[in-house]
């Protein structure tokens, strides 16, 4: 009986050893199909010959209308959004004082005119008498002086009337050019003061961008250069031309203003929109600028990265530190170096460590 039990135990032990040996030799085969991907080399994006600067769009012809007199606003004839023609009256300001002053000036003109005519008659009469030796030189001199003073007084009060009429133009605010009313800063009954903005108008159709460029880059921008203007809010890129470059940054904190006129296009541009101007230049200050398409960026919470190709031909998620965005591309500050390949498109689901097939 003992012999049989010993044989059975030996058989079981051998079976267990055999089973352990076979289990150690097993290997797991990954049968997951490779993901078809397309790649691009970083070197194709290096040394991008552009500089960028942010700015704001405004109308080429725009004006803040104000008055040079103080008075209450009697009436506002337009609303924001109205189209107006050159010379059209927009605001009237109380001019009761001016009307009284004009009446006084007209009375003085009437008086001065009558005095001038009398002095003129005396002058003509005494000139004729002097020529006939019927009047002395002193009498002619006195009459001539009286005539000249009367003439000067008349010219003086006439200039006073011109001054009053000019003040009337400040009481009636008119459009300086064909425009659209874009803002209103005052209401009927408010007190208008000299220099205080009342209305803002701008000529539609022509727009410009005022971009601020740092001193380290301003010398690379040239006048008459064709540029791209990226309108992020409209997801559009339009063309423009550099027409003016400031030569002083005294009052702008070291930033130089560059004015870019936009080409006429069908895009619904509005004043106040933010824009990014892309200036083509011969050389970027940095030794290497790595730019990759925004569409290849992978977001994982607060981290951003891109899929690269590992030595074992698998997808490798590389975390990046990104910089400025230029159109449909973004600058890579760190995490991706020259001659590396990154995946730009793929078929199916791509994840870190996935087998890939480059085509």
Q: Can I get a quick summary?
A:
The protein has 3 helices and 23 strands. The protein is an alpha+beta fold and 359 residues long.
Key terms for this structure?
disordered N terminus, 4-stranded antiparallel sheet, conserved putative lor/sdh protein from methanococcus maripaludis s2 fold, 23 strands, 3 domains, Helix Hairpins, alpha+beta, Elongation Factor Tu (Ef-tu), domain 3, 6-stranded antiparallel β-barrel
Structure description:
The protein is an alpha+beta fold and 359 residues long. It has 3 domains: 35-48 and 288-358, conserved putative lor/sdh protein from methanococcus maripaludis s2 fold; 52-60 and 206-280, Elongation Factor Tu (Ef-tu), domain 3 (Beta Barrel); 71-174, Helix hairpin bin (Helix Hairpins), CATH 1.10.287.470. The chain is built from 3 helices and 23 strands. The protein has helices at 2-24, 96-131, 137-171; strands spanning 35-41, 50-59, 62-65, 71-76, 83-84, 89-93, 172-174, 179-184, 191-192, 199-202, 207-214, 226-231, 236-245, 255-262, 274-280, 290-293, 298-300, 303-309, 315-319, 321-326, 329-334, 341-346, 356-358. The strands form 6 sheets. It has a 6-stranded antiparallel beta barrel. Strands 3-10-8-5 form a 4-stranded antiparallel β-sheet, with no helix packed on it. α2 (96-131) packs antiparallel against α3. The radius of gyration is 43 Å and the shape is elongated. The relative contact order is 0.19. Residues 1-28 have low confidence and may be disordered.
